[in-house]
Design a protein that fits this description.
The complex is a heterodimer of chains A (319) and B (319). With 319 residues, chain A is of the alpha/beta class. Helices cover 48% and strands 11% of the residues of chain A. In chain B, the strands form 2 sheets. Chain B has a 5-stranded parallel β-sheet with strand order 4-5-6-7-8. Chain B has a 3-stranded parallel β-sheet with strand order 1-2-3. Classes of the chains: A alpha/beta (319), B alpha/beta (319). Chains A and B meet through helix 6, helix 7, helix 10 and helix 12 of A and helix 7, helix 8, helix 11 and helix 13 of B.
Chain lengths: 319, 319
């Protein structure tokens, strides 16, 4: 038997006690077992990491984070929440790292908070949950965040949130009551976040910030599968670089909540193993099925090590 | 050299002159070379089939078909259009087969027209383009069409159309001018048609009509990639019963139209099996030669390639 591999998981969520008070309606998490685990940054979480063989979690605030708050509320709240998150990391520095929560409603302040958390607190980047008060992040008013992320050489993780209300009305509402998952991991999360990824490429933000790095969970929300078709569809209007080229140069994907061999192999073929990182999506998804899945993956030891820890160490500059 | 395989392509479009007159302005204008090819069901089309080695096209009316007309107009036009399509097939019975255009704005009449075209004209099923005046086809008022399709044992092909205006407004409008295909093959088509597939499963229509068969183009609009994640996301709703994966893999067939990607095809084969994957080009929106050339280099055995190129279509469409 080989020794157990070192495992880093990087889409792992928690609740800040003050930020969580702002989540209501569809954004509120109902399941008590999930809430209990979101609230816990100590014993329970560490035990469940140990049981599944996860060595390090990169913590991030659960959706919707600060994205649905006005700037005035979000800016001071971000500082307090990130400081508390820093304390959680300091309590277990060999078990936790952190992605910052950013007050995206005030892009300049969000860029400053990204810099503060990375430079002063050692955070590894930031996670943004869905639209910011209805706006996609490719809107030019948010570009100061991308500029700062490039300057700091840290990635921005694009995480889903409950979809735009007008899209719910047009596409999902008939099934929301009986199948609430249609808005979330069942479909709505995927569509909106994949759309965010495409829009970022079309926006030209990667021309402006050519070293910008973006992470998408859930196996890139499916975009690797579509690279041929999207690139073919946009051909002629893409001004040089194909969608495929830009995506594969700037995007990293994680396995959060998506433990599928066929989907993973499709991503490996399209993007290469160096851009695919292990994640669980704890506590919305349990740890053990994730690490068990990786034991049987049809990958060589070197590629598996990249997936489980090597790519994360390089991208997030973990020791 | 092996002999050239027999090749059937089944998402191949044309324009009926009368339907075309009634749908002006419902879709963006196609490029002149596309219009010329949509209008041609004779010499030019046959020559371009010959040049690429395509033996048979199953013809269907191009987007938007009859789906965005009032009921009276749609019912009136359907009969004439399908009769003309029948004449086209009769002129070259060894080169063309047909999917009916059905007047979905009047579901009972659509079911009757499906029956007439299948039993009297030998059509192979029907193709529906996108939403019917804003409604997805899983709405119960359309179920008479599914009931009749099952009774006749013919498949229904779910083809995209321009997305719902509210979704265009929320997700795409910022980029439509510079990247018009964002609404179409590059992304908007995909999202709406995949959503249609998902909604059909959730609707319970396959419980009501357990032998119903649905075809999705463009590699199943990506749904095969997502089977693991969608099944997990919906299982959380605790509704019990068959998983999304089970229903999808039992009732859906997919085609390669406009999506000539090895990684995507292999992902679909792993998830659905080769027996449910059928070759298509999406002529004239996509050229024939890249479609057939791609199949020459596919990493699949001769028996599976034969299924893809004609065997599955012969069985599903009873050709």
């Amino acid at each position: 038997m080989a020794t157990r591999p070192y495992v880093i998981a990087l889409e792992e969520h928690y609740y800040d006690p003050e930020v969580k008070r702002h989540a209501s309606g569809l954004d509120a998490i109902a399941a008590p077992a999930t809430v209990q685990r979101l609230d816990d940054l100590g014993e329970l979480r560490l035990r469940e990491m140990d049981e599944a063989g996860i060595d390090l979690q990169v913590l991030s605030h659960s959706m919707p984070g600060l994205q649905k708050l006005d700037g005035e509320t979000a800016v001071p709240l971000a500082r307090r929440a990130n400081d508390r998150l820093n304390e959680a990391v300091r309590a277990h520095p060999n078990r936790f790292a952190a992605f910052a929560a950013l007050p995206t409603a005030d892009p300049k302040a969000a860029a400053d908070e990204l810099e503060r958390t990375v430079a002063k607190l050692g955070f590894k980047g930031a996670m943004v949950n869905g639209l910011t008060n209805g706006l996609f992040l490719d809107d030019k008013r948010f570009w100061p965040i991308f500029e700062r992320a490039q300057a700091l050489d840290v990635p921005i993780y694009l995480h889903p949130a409950i979809p735009h209300p007008d899209v719910i009305e047009a596409y999902y509402k008939d099934y929301v009551e009986k199948h609430p998952g249609i808005l979330r991991a069942g479909w709505g999360f995927t569509v909106e976040t994949a759309t965010q990824g495409i829009r970022l490429v079309l926006s030209g933000v990667f021309d402006a910030y050519p070293r910008l790095k973006v992470i998408m969970g859930h196996l890139g929300e499916g975009l690797p599968f579509y690279l041929w078709r999207i690139s073919h569809g946009l051909r002629g209007s893409d001004g040089g670089k194909s969608f495929r080229d830009v995506f594969c140069e700037h995007f990293y994907v994680t396995t959060s909540g998506f433990f599928s061999d066929p989907a993973l192999l499709c991503c490996v073929m399209e993007m290469g193993i160096d851009r695919i990182l292990f994640s669980v999506d704890y506590p919305f998804v349990d740890n053990p099925p994730a690490t068990k899945w990786t034991e049987t993956l049809p990958l060589c030891a070197e590629d598996k090590e990249k997936l489980l820890s090597g790519n994360a160490r390089r991208l997030l500059k973990l020791e | 050299m092996a002999t050239k395989p027999y090749i059937i392509a089944l998402e191949e479009h044309y324009f009926d002159p009368e339907v075309k007159r009634h749908t002006v302005g419902q879709e963006p204008t196609n490029a002149p070379r596309i219009v010329e090819r949509l209008d041609d069901v004779g010499e030019l089309r046959l020559r371009e089939m010959d040049e690429a080695g395509i033996d048979m096209q199953v013809l269907s009316h191009a987007n938007p078909g009859l789906q965005k007309l009032d009921a009276d107009t749609a019912v009136r036009l359907a009969r004439g259009a399908n009769d003309r399509l029948y004449e086209t097939v009769r002129a070259h019975p060894d080169r063309f087969a047909a999917f009916a255009a059905i007047p979905t704005p009047e579901p009972k009449a659509a079911a009757d027209e499906l029956e007439r075209t299948v039993t009297k004209l030998g059509f192979k099923g029907a193709l529906v383009n996108g939403l019917t005046n804003g409604l997805f086809l899983d709405d119960k008022r359309f179920w008479p069409i599914f009931e009749r399709a099952q009774a006749l044992d013919v498949p229904l092909y779910m083809h995209p159309a321009l997305p719902h205006p509210a979704v265009v407004e929320a997700y795409y409008k910022d980029y439509v001018e510079q990247y018009p295909s964002l609404l179409r093959a590059a992304w908007g088509f995909t999202v709406e048609t995949a959503t249609q597939g998902l909604r059909l499963v959730l609707s319970g229509v396959f419980d009501a009509y357990p032998r119903l068969k649905i075809i999705l183009g463009h590699m199943g609009e990506g749904l095969p990639f997502y089977l693991w994640r969608i099944s997990m996301g919906l299982a959380r709703d605790g509704r019990g019963g068959k998983s999304f994966r089970d229903v999808f893999c039992e009732h859906f067939y997919i085609t390669t139209s406009g999506f000539f990607s090895d990684p995507a095809l292999l992902c679909c084969m792993m998830e659905m099996g080769i027996d449910r994957i059928l070759f298509s080009v999406d002529y004239p929106f996509v050229d024939n030669p890249p479609g057939t050339k791609w199949t020459e280099t596919l990493p699949i055995c001769a028996e599976d390639k034969e299924k893809l190129l004609n065997g599955n279509a012969k069985r599903l469409l009873k050709i």
